[in-house]
Design a protein that fits this description.
Oligomer: single chain
Number of strands: 17
Distance between the termini: 90 Å
CATH architecture of the largest domain: 3-Layer(aba) Sandwich
Strand order of the largest sheet: 7-6-3-8-9
Helix content: 10-25%
Order of helices and strands: EHHEEEEHHEEHEEEEEEEEEE
CATH superfamily of the largest domain: von Willebrand factor, type A domain
CATH class of the largest domain: Alpha Beta
Radius of gyration: 40 Å
Structural class: alpha/beta
Length: about 325
């Protein structure tokens, strides 16, 4: 309902002059012997009006009309659309757990009562999606006309920090009140999510087993890209493992032609490095694989190997450089 308020910015005591000035004007025009024609009455009216206007300007009246409008809060629903949501745990994939949550009647009723829900999916980037495409009928949804297709659960990376930053840019004009995040929390690229300042509370709903999964990953293999046949080349390999502390596993270095080296490795929890002595016997450029065989109870074997390229020379060249005097280039 509109609310009209009046305030006086000037000296309100000037209002006391109004009756005095008005009375003086009436007395001057109605004193004995003064004409009372219609013209005089008009002049009297104009003078009193001018006096009222002058005093009103001096007291500086301010009129404020306030219209109250209530708009429901805007809630951003962020759903993880990365490939890690396809990991199966306890007989159910993570994305199925997220869908069960969104299809839950109590959750849908709660979302309906909150206000304006805007749905987003994120993996390596942020995009909108239609809640109705997930079978969620009813409720208040605010969706862009050209929204992307439904959730695919195949994103190659999870940039949670980038998604929150993009959300802050997109939702700036929508009075964002809160964020409801559904994810497995496996953010592996982009900025730190804690540095993406939204200024609104974020309510995170985790899906998946909170325990660290049993897994072995060969993170990297570093060595000199050029070697000599018959000479040893050290290869520094970084391994990350969880759930296998104290287990001994073989680690292989091999080319398409066959295995070059096999060595036993005692695993520690977390990251560890091991130096392997690689000794190629023949020259040529080749692709070398460092691999740890998959374990029977391992979550995934997709990260059990890495590749690098090695150029093996036939031998070292003997080069003689002669100079007439010592110079820095040959020092």
């Amino acid at each position: 309902m509109p609310d009209l308020r009046t305030t006086l910015g000037g000296n309100i005591y000037l209002l006391m002059l109004l009756p005095v000035l008005a009375g003086l004007a009436v007395y001057l025009y109605r004193r004995p012997g003064h004409s009372r024609s219609s013209l005089v009455r008009v002049l009297l009216f104009l003078r009193i009006s001018a006096l009222l206007t002058a005093v009103a300007l001096l007291v500086e009246p301010l009129f404020a009309l306030t219209v109250h409008h209530t708009r429901p809060p805007t809630i951003a629903l962020l759903v993880d659309d990365s490939a890690s949501m396809g990991i199966e745990e306890a007989g159910k994939q993570r994305w199925q757990v997220a869908l069960d949550l969104l299809h839950n009647a109590q959750v849908r009723q709660a979302l309906d009562k909150i206000g304006d829900v805007r749905a987003f999916a994120f993996a390596e980037s942020l995009r909108t999606f239609d809640l109705k495409s997930l079978g969620m009928e009813g409720g208040q949804t605010s969706l862009t006309p050209h929204a992307s297709p439904p959730l695919k659960w195949n994103g190659p990376a999870t940039d949670l920090g980038g998604a929150l930053t993009a959300l802050a840019d997109q939702a700036g004009a929508h009075d964002l009140s809160a964020v409801l995040l559904i994810s497995d929390g496996a953010a592996n690229v982009g900025v730190d999510p804690e540095k993406a300042a939204l200024g609104v509370p974020i309510y995170a709903v985790g899906v998946g087993d909170p325990a660290e999964p049993k897994d072995i990953a060969v993170v990297s293999a570093l060595c000199d890209p050029v070697g000599v046949a018959g000479e040893e080349i050290p290869v520094r390999v970084t391994i990350r493992s969880s759930g296998y502390a104290g287990r001994r596993v073989p680690i292989d270095i091999r080319t398409p032609d066959g295995s070059l080296l096999t060595q036993s490795l005692l695993l520690d929890e977390g990251d560890q490095q091991v130096d392997l002595p690689l000794k190629p016997e023949s020259p040529g450029r080749r692709t070398v694989e460092v691999r740890i065989p998959a374990q029977p109870d391992e979550r995934s074997a997709d990260n059990n190997s890495v590749f690098f390229t090695l150029n093996v020379l036939k031998g070292k060249y003997r080069i003689l450089i002669a100079s007439g005097s010592p110079i820095p280039d040959f020092g």
